[in-house]
Amino acid sequence: MSECLWTTAAITEAMRATVQGDLPAGITGISIDSRTIRPGEVYFAIKGDVHDGHAFVDAALKNGAAFAVVEAAQREKFAADARLLVVDDVLAGLVDLGLAARARLGARVVAITGSVGKTSTKEALLRVLSAQGPTHASVASFNNHWGVPLTLARCPADVRFAIFEIGMNHAGEIEPLVKMVRPHYAVITTVEPVHLEFFSGIEAIADAKAEIFLGVEPDGVAVLNRDNDQFARLEKSAKKAGVSHIVSFGSDAEADARLIDISLHPTCSAVHANILGQDITYKFGMPGRHMAMNSLAVLAAASLMGADLAHAALTLSQVVPAEGRGVRLMLEIAGGEALVIDETFNANPASTSAALNVLGTAAIGGQGRRIAVLGDMLELGLRGAELHAGLLEAVTANAIDLVFCCGPLMRNLWDALPSDKRGGYAGDAKGLESQVVSTIRAGDAILVKGSKGSKMGPIVTALTKRFPSNAARDDAAE
């Protein structure tokens, strides 16, 4: 791939911008963070929910930005010789540049959405495809109204594969994003009761996810979870949108990417599957049946995009959890070690039940216990109390020994727990920290999970500060 991502002339034309100052001929990257910008990158002064990026333009230029993109209304704040591209609206300019990036792109393009697992599926597909050719993908969870155009604008023209994650929590959010991306393949991992606060029910969530079909290129493909209750509804929506080629994955006998057998291990899974007619056995480097099911979608999408299936399956053994999504840490405690499973990035009923299933398979030693530390799952609307209390089934089924709860919604689970499983309760995560830290002993396996707004991450930090930690990468299943 070329070192120059965009010529300045091309950016100026795409955004219909006005040039100020002495600008270089081209740029090597795009940034919206003045703290991490690298020399040669262009800085976009995006207005966020908390900060206005225009406040950091001078810092970005001082840190080596090739130039900054600013709005005309704030142009006078900067020196007359400052290196600027001036537009009416910076976010709109970024969208225009993203559209220009898609227009010049010759890659096979896939878009991924779903109530659960879209980021881990994207990361697994990135690992698979990048082993077979130049690949571009969304960073972290850049899947919203600024993340998608930013990912597009960052995409080099000469990649072979491009992967985009698309998120939403309201109806109508996916459609404009997918129409920018114009994917050849649209993957929906699953539809679950998430963001119920903003929807009338699970069918409405499925309809919102189905907006992804509205941007699929002619002769494109929808990759859908046949095991999910909303499969028929999604299939109908895809066909209505003109996507006639449906590829399904799951354990259902009619699935095109079908699970034949699976062996679950504490930190990985051994999978036997039939992918689009080809039998294959592979190791997937993340634990949990739910993760293994998404690996079927990864292999189906990779095969459809022209990747070698055998090579793709081999690469799946190298997949590891992303930060806050199942990363394992070993705590060095007097008398031995304890395992922490960091699932603090986000939570909903489906992902929390799945995480409890993973905790249920975690190895414990000596007098060790399986301990769940759970914070509120947010945006569940009127069903919040019921869905939190409903986690008792997964707690019981996975022989969880102790449960710590925090937050007003998780109080419903706490009240439902038998007394011998009650580890501790607090109104918020901060109040739970000391209770958890003082309880841990050698041999324990501890899951920490909650919605992003529940701020469960500091509990993991408190544990690793109290006890030395190292990333635990299990190779026992090899």
Present the secondary structure layout.
Elements: E1 6-7, H1 8-15, E2 18-20, E3 26-27, E4 29-31, E5 41-44, H2 57-62, E6 67-71, E7 84-87, H3 90-104, E8 108-113, H4 118-130, E9 135-137, H5 147-153, E10 161-165, H6 174-181, E11 185-188, H7 202-209, E12 221-225, H8 231-240, E13 245-250, E14 257-264, E15 269-275, E16 278-284, H9 289-304, H10 309-315, E17 327-333, E18 336-343, H11 349-361, E19 370-375, H12 384-389, H13 392-397, E20 402-406, H14 411-416, E21 422-426, H15 429-439, E22 445-449, H16 457-466, E23 469-471
Parallel strand pairs: 4-5, 5-6, 6-7, 8-10, 8-11, 9-10, 11-12, 12-13, 13-14, 18-22, 19-20, 19-22, 20-21
Antiparallel strand pairs: 1-3, 2-7, 14-15, 15-16, 17-18, 17-23
Helix pairs in contact: 3-5, 4-9, 15-16
Helix content: 25-40%
The DSSP helix count reads: 16
Order of strands in the sheet with the most strands? 9-10-8-11-12-13-14-15-16
**Biggest β-sheet strands, sense, barrel:** 9 strands, mixed
Q: Radius of gyration, rounded?
A: 24 Å
| Level-1 CATH class name of the largest domain | Alpha Beta
Give the CA-based shape. Answer: globular
Here the CATH topology of the largest domain equals UDP-N-acetylmuramoyl-L-alanine:D-glutamate ligase
Percent in strands = 15-25%
Q: What is the residue-averaged pLDDT?
A: 95
Distance between the termini: 35 Å
Q: State the CATH architecture of the largest domain.
A: 3-Layer(aba) Sandwich
Give a brief description.
The protein is an alpha/beta fold. The protein is 31% helix and 24% strand.
Q: What would you note in describing this structure?
A:
The chain has a nine-stranded mixed sheet with strand order 9-10-8-11-12-13-14-15-16, sandwiched between helices. Strands 21-20-19-22-18-17-23 form a seven-stranded mixed sheet, sandwiched between helices. A five-stranded mixed sheet has the order 2-7-6-5-4. The protein has three domains: 83 residues, Udp-n-acetylmuramoylalanyl-d-glutamate--2,6- Diaminopimelate Ligase, Chain: A, domain 1 (3-Layer(aba) Sandwich), CATH 3.40.1390; 214 residues, UDP-N-acetylmuramoyl-L-alanine:D-glutamate ligase (3-Layer(aba) Sandwich), CATH 3.40.1190; 141 residues, Mur ligase, C-terminal domain (Protein-Tyrosine Phosphatase, Chain A). The chain is 31% helix and 24% strand. It starts with 5 loop residues before the first strand and ends in a 7-residue tail after the last strand. Strand 12, helix 8 and strand 13 form a beta-alpha-beta unit. The protein is an alpha/beta fold. It contains 16 helices and 23 strands.
